């Protein structure tokens, strides 16, 4: 009996000590999350923060959102803070080279390979996606969502009225475009500069195919090669069937043209689906249709918002808890239906998503995945910024050879080509 009491007492001491250690290790204090998610995107982030706070009630989350400029203002503030030695605990960034080519090469981010191993994420994130967020030295961010870039939108009722079908290739598009013009319809609506780059990447994927498209970003295919000059030539022919006021329009206004019957098609990311279904009240399938952009069937051009672990962040353990939350199935299925995106995880609960997002998720889980240029996946920020100038020049002079050589120079200057 005496021995039992001693053992019981010893067990209680160990239990109390264990609970004390666990309590001390539980996240507490503050966590600053830096992003540009505001407006329509704000509720999705707020839901994710609420989930985190429910899991870690001792942590006060600071939602450091910098609004405006589609992230341009936020990136400027972030640069000042990172270079000034005042990093936020974690910040929103497009997964891939926007992070790797800027802050990873500057040794300002921690390798997260250990976290992916610990959380079992190698089994739930596709290999193609892991390749986009990794280098030989590590994995650098946790993707919280997936958007698809190469989507062509249209209104089925309008196409029927005009006697055309969604083109599966750009040759088919170029064949039906004159007929649409004769009926007073813009064949393909377009907006400001970045939407032209968005269109260009889909044209490049179609013309080059996924292998050579990837070669372009890995420095294995020259920008001055006949293949890439051919991309610019095809792109120029397509632009002949776009609206002349494109530089003055936002992507929403270009989408509005399709909904209003002024244009037949628009190439945009799947946020356009959310805009049409939520803001404009047009139902997917019934009111609007979609297909892979011409010539890209079986390929999913992806972009992803992600968060990483900055070197020297003030609340490292709280940040790790944040990364675990956003990478979890529960976290991603809380965030993405509100954001209008899909989960990067292949075990997502698709019953929580609308019919368009379910379609996108099926393609994501079965297609070849490549990265977006326009949204920071395959090229660093310097290349992206200078490529926007190349695009402006091409939109003015339509010279494929000049554009190819200018892009090659930008690739060399930005370090994309060694």
Describe the structure.
51% of the residues lie in helices and 14% in strands. α2 (42-55) packs antiparallel against α14 (329-339). It is globular and about 70 Å long. The protein folds into two domains: 28-147 and 304-371, 3-Layer(aba) Sandwich (D-Maltodextrin-Binding Protein, domain 2), CATH 3.40.190; 148-302 and 374-413, Periplasmic binding protein-like II (D-Maltodextrin-Binding Protein, domain 2, 3-Layer(aba) Sandwich). The strands form four sheets. It has a five-stranded mixed sheet, with helices on both faces. It has a four-stranded mixed sheet with strand order 9-10-8-11. It has a three-stranded mixed sheet with strand order 7-12-14, sandwiched between helices. It has 418 residues and is α/β, with parallel strands linked by helices.
CATH secondary-structure class of the largest domain: Alpha Beta
- In the CATH scheme, what's the topology name of the largest domain? D-Maltodextrin-Binding Protein, domain 2
CATH architecture of the largest domain: 3-Layer(aba) Sandwich
Number of extended strands: 14
Counted by DSSP, the helix tally is 17
Largest sheet: 5 strands, mixed
Shape: globular
Estimate the strand proportion.
5-15%
Q: Which residues form runs of ≥5 with pLDDT under 50?
A: 1-24
Query: Which secondary-structure class do the elements indicate?
Result: alpha/beta
Mean pLDDT: 92
Number of domains: 2
- Ends apart, CA distance between termini: 77 Å
**Share of helical residues:** 40-55%
Q: Which homologous superfamily in CATH is the superfamily of the largest domain?
A: Periplasmic binding protein-like II
């Amino acid at each position: 009996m005496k021995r039992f009491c001693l053992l019981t007492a010893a067990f209680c001491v160990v239990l109390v000590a264990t609970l004390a250690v666990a309590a001390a290790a539980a996240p507490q204090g503050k966590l600053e999350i830096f992003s540009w998610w505001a407006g329509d995107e704000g509720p999705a982030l707020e839901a994710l923060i609420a989930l985190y706070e429910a899991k870690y009630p001792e942590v006060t989350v600071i939602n450091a959102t910098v609004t405006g400029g589609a992230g341009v203002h936020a990136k400027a503030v972030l640069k000042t803070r990172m270079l000034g030695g005042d990093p936020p605990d974690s910040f929103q960034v497009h997964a891939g080279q926007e992070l790797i080519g800027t802050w990873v090469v500057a040794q300002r981010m921690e390798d997260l390979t250990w976290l992916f191993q610990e959380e079992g994420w190698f089994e739930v994130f596709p290999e193609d996606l892991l390749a986009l967020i990794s280098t030989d030295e590590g994995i650098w961010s946790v993707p919280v969502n997936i958007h698809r870039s190469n989507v062509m939108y249209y209104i089925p009722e309008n196409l029927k009225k005009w006697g055309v079908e969604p083109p599966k290739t750009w040759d088919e598009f170029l064949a039906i475009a004159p007929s649409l013009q004769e009926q007073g319809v813009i064949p393909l609506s377009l907006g400001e500069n970045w939407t032209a780059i968005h269109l260009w990447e889909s044209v490049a994927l179609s013309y080059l195919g996924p292998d050579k498209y990837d070669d372009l970003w890995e420095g294995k295919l020259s920008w001055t090669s006949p293949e890439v000059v051919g991309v610019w030539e095809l792109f120029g022919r397509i632009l002949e069937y776009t609206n002349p006021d494109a530089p003055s329009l936002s992507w929403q206004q270009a989408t509005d043209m399709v909904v209003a019957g002024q244009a037949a098609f628009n190439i945009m990311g799947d946020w356009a689906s959310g805009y049409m279904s939520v803001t404009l009240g047009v139902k997917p399938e019934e009111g609007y249709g979609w297909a892979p952009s011409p010539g890209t069937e079986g390929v999913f051009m992806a972009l992803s918002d992600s968060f990483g672990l900055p070197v020297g962040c003030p609340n490292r353990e709280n940040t790790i808890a944040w990364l675990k939350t956003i990478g979890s199935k529960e976290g991603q299925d809380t965030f993405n239906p509100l954001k209008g995106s899909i989960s990067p995880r292949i075990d997502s609960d698709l019953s929580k998503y609308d019919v368009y997002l379910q379609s996108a998720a099926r393609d994501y889980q079965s297609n070849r995945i490549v990265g977006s240029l326009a949204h920071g996946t395959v090229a660093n920020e310097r290349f992206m910024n200078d490529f926007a100038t190349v695009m402006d020049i091409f939109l003015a002079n339509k010279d494929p050879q000049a554009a190819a050589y200018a892009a090659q120079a930008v690739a060399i200057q930005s370090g994309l080509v060694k």
